[in-house]
Amino acid sequence: MKIDLHLHSTHSDGNWTPSQLVAHAINIGMDTIALTDHDTVSGIDEALASADGKLEVVPALEINTVWTDKSGVSQDVHILGYFIDKENETLLALLKRQQEARNEHVRKLVDILAAEGMKISFQAIHEIADGSPIGKVHVTQAIVSCGGASDVTEAYTKFYDRKSKYYVKRESVSPFEAIEAIRAAGGITSIAHPSYCADLTSLIVDLSKHGLDGIEVYHSAHQPQHEASHLKLAERLNLLITGGSDCHGPWGEHESLMGTIPVPPDVIVKLKQRRF
């Protein structure tokens, strides 16, 4: 089986529409995929319809959260949710909070950039988003369009890096709140790409006592030593294993990552078993 449980579309920060993403998955022989757009479920219906029985699409999402450790240091922590009820009121309420915070964050950044002389506006970003929830991909495209950066990679580095003078802190829910909302929607939770951050072991242990179901062990940013460490922790805490490429579609000269991360077939089997 070919499985990829971490994919993004234009409904968050990918550059394929859900239909294009599914078409590519079918073309390369994927068996099971999950659309895990950031803080939104708006692309799931399109993905499910596009599958047309040719592969399995797991209704899912990735919630961006912020965790502050005991020393007061904050880190971005992402929580994946699988097999969710995308119409659950608790989940939708949390996602509404996330989008409102995201929009406020974008407005603050736009004000800063406009004060620097950049011809950018919230309305222009809204038009680029074309009905999708506004995210970094739309902001960086707007920045490139008005000459603020040569490409989106430069725009990300210049305006979104925490060390940038333009960096604007965004308010976000905690990983505990994200897990609670996903579980309310009948979903299975997993912490995404834990090796992106400083050591999250203490947080994962704590989250495992508050509804965390799994750890994303297999990921395009994880080295073999990361996988081994996360597998050991998952076994110790009796957590599920998840995995995926974190594909955002092809970017410039870079080909799509979809399907490039080997995910054992029993991953999806055990996820489904946990649902019941």
Task: Give an overview of the whole structure.
This protein is an alpha/beta fold. The protein has two domains: 3-96 and 172-274, Metal-dependent hydrolases (TIM Barrel, Alpha-Beta Barrel), CATH 3.20.20; 99-160, no CATH class. It is 41% helix and 17% strand. The chain has ten helices and seven strands. It has helices at residues 18-27, 44-51, 89-115, 122-129, 136-145, 152-160, 175-184, 201-208, 224-237, 266-274; strands at 3-7, 32-35, 56-68, 74-82, 188-191, 214-219, 240-244. Strands 1-2-3-4-5-6-7 form a seven-stranded mixed sheet. β1, α1 (18-27) and β2 form a beta-alpha-beta unit. α1 (18-27) packs parallel to α2 (44-51), α4 crosses α5 (136-145) and α5 packs across α6. It starts with a strand and ends with a helix. The mean pLDDT is 94.
Ordered list of secondary-structure elements with their pairings:
Blueprint: E1 3-7, H1 18-27, E2 32-35, H2 44-51, E3 56-68, E4 74-82, H3 89-115, H4 122-129, H5 136-145, H6 152-160, H7 175-184, E5 188-191, H8 201-208, E6 214-219, H9 224-237, E7 240-244, H10 266-274
Parallel strand pairs: 1-2, 2-3, 5-6, 6-7
Antiparallel strand pairs: 3-4, 4-5
